[in-house]
Amino acid sequence: MKKVLLYNIMDDEEIAIKEWLKTHPDVEVDSNKVTLNPDTVDLAKGYDGISTEQDNLIDDPIVYQKLHEFGIKQITLRITGYDTINLDLATQNQLKVTNVPAYSPRSVSEMVLAQTMWLLRHLHVAQSREQSYNFTWEGLQAREIHDLTVGIIGAGKIGSEVARIFKALGATVIAADPIHRPELNSILDYVDHETVYKEADIVTTHTPLLESTYHLFDESVFKKMKPSAIFINASRGGVVYTPALIAALQNHEITAAGLDTIEGEANIFSDDFSEKPFENDYLKTILTLPNAIITPHIGFYTDNAIRNMVDISMKDMLTIINGGTSEHELN
């Protein structure tokens, strides 16, 4: 019987794990609610494999060294983003790292639609007024989505789902991506980044956080967008240089922004700070802006996504433990 440990488990994941175990009685699964770090890595001793879901950086060499000493062959992430992992240290310690590249592309694409329509129809303004019993119409006239162009940076699994949703609503869809997928030819037109920035009424990004995409959206990019443009980020916080975004919103270089992620969100999102302080000046500023909305990285958070996160990560973990190769290996 294989024995695996899941770090930082969410309550909803426990339900999915119980369902998974019904068809895998030969696997023993233990879990905890702590992140993988130098203080908790010893918990993995005696297990065949581990998995984690966290925003905290795992950058201390001792974590990787100890996992190797314990005989563990992998680190399985139950999320898409893998910028928390030092892939070089993992490779040096013979640890294969996997992620779940698309636990539910539909879940994130529906969040993009929700934020876009909330901003496009000025619902954030109407809601704010109504709290003071102001039900006037001034400034609430909206544009209709079928008259607009949606520009996608990164038309992979999630970006292509975003394209399908907006195309179904009648919008013109353009996308910048180095990979041109023939199955999307009837849905979108491939263009370069500059064209997306200049022509799109809605700009939404779905790129991974890499060295090449770090702070991709900087001051120069926001200045290229239409003053009427809406910007959506449901990918990774580091893709956006946040001071530049804040300036663009304050100076009305773009109309509005919808964010499901932000730089420095680790240890903040998914926690309750209603009665305690948190440290992220960018987030504090954005929360005060009348033309920005932010959600705590919940774009993925649907029943289907949680089930897929568990099922795919457990399959990858067992595959590597048993000497196989996962299609989701990152190193």
TrEMBL record:
InterPro entries membership: D-isomer_2_OHA_DH_cat_dom, D-isomer_DH_NAD-bd, D-LDH-like, NAD(P)-bd_dom_sf
Keyword NAD included in the entry's annotation: yes
Top-level taxon: Bacteria
UniProt domain D-isomer specific 2-hydroxyacid dehydrogenase NAD-binding: residue ranges: 116-299
A Pfam family of this chain: 2-Hacid_dh_C
Keywords for this protein: NAD, Oxidoreductase
Residues covered by the D-isomer specific 2-hydroxyacid dehydrogenase catalytic domain: 18-331
Family statement drawn from the similarity comment of this UniProt entry: Belongs to the D-isomer specific 2-hydroxyacid dehydrogenase family.
PANTHER family: 2-HYDROXYACID DEHYDROGENASE HOMOLOG 1-RELATED
Protein's recorded name: D-2-hydroxyacid dehydrogenase
Organism lineage: Bacteria, Bacillati, Bacillota, Bacilli, Lactobacillales
